[in-house]
Amino acid sequence: MALAGQLRLWLLAARLLLAPRRDLTVCGPNEPLPVVRILRALQRRQEERQSGQRSPPRPVLARPGLLLMSARRPELNEPSHLTLGPWNPRHSLCAWRNPRTHADHFSIECAQHEAPALRNLSPKGSAELGLELRVLSAQEAAPEVVRPTTVESSTIPPLLRGRHILCAAETGSGKTVSYMLPLLQRLLGQPSLDPCRIPAPRGLVLVPSRELAELVRAVAQPLGSSLDLQVRELGGGHGTRRIRLQLSKQPPADILVATPGLKTQLISLEPLSFLVLDHADTLLDESFLELVDYILEGSHTAEGPADLKDPFNPKAQLVLVGATFPEGVGQLLSKVASLDSLTPVTSDKLHCIMPHVRQTFMRPKGTEKVTGLVQILRQHDRAYRTGATGTVLVFCNCYSTVNWLGYILDDHKIQHLRLQGQMPASMRAGIFQSFQKGSRDILLCTDIASRGLDSTQVELVLNYDFPLTLQDYIHRAGRVGRVGSEVPGTVVSFVTHPWDVSLAQKIELAARWRRRLPGLGSSVREPLHQQTLLQQAYI
């Protein structure tokens, strides 16, 4: 019965729908014709089809002012003077989950020309920060050091006062020099202790990779040589016998730059005057935390500035440095030192998109990524031969992709270097230094080259594989636009997978709303909310 009732309703609805069409043929002369409404666009298209002429396309009006976002379709360009709130429609990235959006692209344009660390510099010179004359002379003689940045102005005074420091600032802002200068000055004021049976450095800098250890040594060695202080590097990946032989051939080191694989039985950590954890967020990760704890147990960390005044009973001043501190890192920091004893030095541009670097996002098909990469590198190679451009870093997410792309570039006669974590230590040694010296202008690499490695000649960072986290994106993009860079920086990212689109949307919205990247914004300040922050001079 219910089925029969539904059938009657359907028949009645069909009669009502068909009745107007029958009325069109049987209506009387005095009866009004029914009104049929059509869209104006369809009517215009029908008129053009009948006349055989098409009206010219409407001109796209360019929005005035400097652009914050430039898109493939000019009508989606957004001027930088507008601050769009969360109620505004998002950019075309919302449609990038649709396969039809392949070949689309958009760019986050530069909002300024110089690095944030060089803007609004403190009127005080380096001498007024408390540095001695001979340290200032060493700073001027070092080739890698540029004019003082705001990071130096905020970090040097508390370090000279003996404070434990947590320095969190954007990539390429001069953090290495900012902690190295005051720590070198502390060593000058302390007498050298009697030599031990095993090497006993007075300063130790821990870094997560051999390449980063080489870079820190390259920055610190010219400074130390001018002050008659020996700076040595000790990378991991070698046997105990080889490391002992290396230490015996070299003169005693005042400052040792090493990786967490350092064998504490080969050196004495008792006379340490300072201990630096460079890229602390990586060193406090699960893969390094046990090794770092082992080194911390062998050193004597000072409880306060008063413990640093006895030259014959040295205690270590603790310095934690990093460009990213994701959420939850405060719990790891508490395992290293008391949070109340750390003085935070933070930057307003921490975890933000760098405003002086152009960042382009491209939406190729997965099968078109190699073609797009080869095309970009060939264009770069022609410009590089004329001296009109700098070098290129191509990032991949795994070592197998680096090797595979290397074979493809070899087939296209594109010269390059490769750097990935599965290489033996003997092969990795010197690859990045060769890249810096200009033996090759293209480096295929994994994220092993994304942290701390400095090159003022890099002009283009190309993310062949989109980074897996926003933290990795910050470090990759930080390879360009650094303090002292001689060429403008650009980042190009291939966005192919749905999870890549999700991360690209977060980067886009952070740039549009002038905010920090989500998940990284307040992680440094959360464990330190009771501390008095130093005066910040960043924009």
CATH hierarchy class name of the largest domain? Alpha Beta
The count of helical stretches stands at: 16
Q: Please summarize the sheet with the most strands.
A: 9 strands, mixed
**N- to C-terminal distance:** 76 Å
CATH architecture of the largest domain: 3-Layer(aba) Sandwich
Structural class: alpha/beta
Mean pLDDT: 78
CATH T-level topology of the largest domain? Rossmann fold
The named CATH superfamily of the largest domain: P-loop containing nucleotide triphosphate hydrolases
What overall form do the CA principal axes indicate? elongated
Give the percentage of residues in beta strands: 5-15%
Number of strands: 16
Describe the structure.
There is one protein chain. By secondary structure, the protein is α/β, with parallel strands linked by helices. The protein folds into two domains: 202 residues, Rossmann fold, CATH 3.40.50.300; 243 residues, P-loop containing nucleotide triphosphate hydrolases (Rossmann fold, 3-Layer(aba) Sandwich), CATH 3.40.50. The protein has 16 helices and 16 strands. It has a nine-stranded mixed sheet, sandwiched between helices. It has a seven-stranded parallel sheet with strand order 6-7-5-8-9-4-10. A hairpin with a 6-residue loop joins strand 1 and strand 2. The longest helix has 25 residues. The chain is elongated, with a radius of gyration of 31 Å. The termini are far apart. The C terminus is likely disordered.
